[in-house]
Amino acid sequence: MKSFYDKEDYTIDDIQSLIENQVEESIYLDFKSAGSLEKSDKKRIEISKDVASFANSDGGIIVYGIKEVDHVASEFSFIDGNEFTKEWIETIINSYVQRRISDIKIYPIRIDGDIKKSIYVVKIPYSYDAPHLSKDNRYYKRYNFMSVPMEEYEIRQSYNRKDNTELVIDNLILQIGSSSIVGSSYLKTLHMALIFQVSNISNSIENMYKVEVHINRKILASGNPPNFMRNEEETAIFSFPNTSPLFQDEVTSIATVPLLFNGSNHHLLWEPVNVHLYYTNGSKGKTFYINEMMDLKGKPLKDWQWQ
Questions:
Q1: Does the domain spanning 7-162 belong to CATH 3.30.70.890?
Q2: pLDDT for residue 100
Q3: Euclidean distance between CA atoms 178 and 187, whole angstroms
């Protein structure tokens, strides 16, 4: 459900899709019907408990305005936005959760602009200020579909989050080199370099990290480019260790792989390029497709013919 979490905005179509596809609640996603937003202290405590549990875990989304049956999105359960506003939800979260959670985002959605048919998507980030205390003086985490009390050791460990690093595979830059073009639409050869970037999104400096790139060896510009590690059948694997620390909010270009495409291997533009990032506190992977990412002389690569 991370793809839903990563969206920059939400529409009624996104919510409708959850229902039509019978999406299930998870460690990252929770559905709440209209009755979950009430002004009784009991309901306010429930809000604080649910929100804090996501912040104390890996972040996630609460959708207020969907009824669930057996943890599956079943139908709309609209909220009267006149009575329960975005600001009201923000106030409850900020006053009922300690310490305050930074960067919570609330997206109000209205059916045909009708404020009485409101849905609220509450996006809670992974918090470096964890653990966060609910109004009932307990610490909660996400476990499957539920918010459950944290164990003592989990509370103790979460105090160290500020000292933990988190890196992400930030971007892939395609650097186009020389090409041999016949007429206006035929390619004979195309040189390019893949440049992989890593960023530090945490509050601590990372001293040890590396990137592995897995790519079809038939598209390499030379047999054994720098940082080549080994072959696994048709896949060449490269290892790029860091050469300097990565500071907070810093982005660095860590890996460059030169490629050569021609008439015999151009079909491999459609093959995935798999990238693995390893750092002190974990590892991450990401897949890129070159053919989806580049134009040549203003024309999508897929529209070129090869000789």
A1: no
A2: 95
A3: 11
Domain with CATH 3.30.950.30 in the chain: 7-162
Options 2.60.40.10, 3.90.550.10, 3.40.50.1820, 1.10.10.10; CATH of 167-306: 2.60.40.10
Strands, E, within 153-244: which ranges? 167-182, 186-200, 209-216, 228-232, 235-241
Q: State the 10-residue block means of pLDDT for the chain, 307 residues long.
A: 78 96 95 96 97 96 97 97 97 96 96 96 93 97 94 91 87 82 77 93 92 93 81 93 95 93 86 94 90 74 75
Of 213, 286, 202, the closest CA to residue 246 belongs to 202
Work out whether strand 272-279 and strand 251-262 pair parallel, antiparallel, or are unpaired: unpaired
Q: At what angle do helices 86-96 and 41-56 cross, to 10 degrees?
A: 70
The 3-state secondary structure of 107-123, one letter per residue: EEEEECCEEEEEEEEEE
Spatial contact of 124 and 54, defined as CB atoms under 8 Å apart: yes
Q: CB of 79 within 8 A of CB of 37?
A: yes
Closest to 258 (Cα-Cα) out of 238, 288, 230: 238
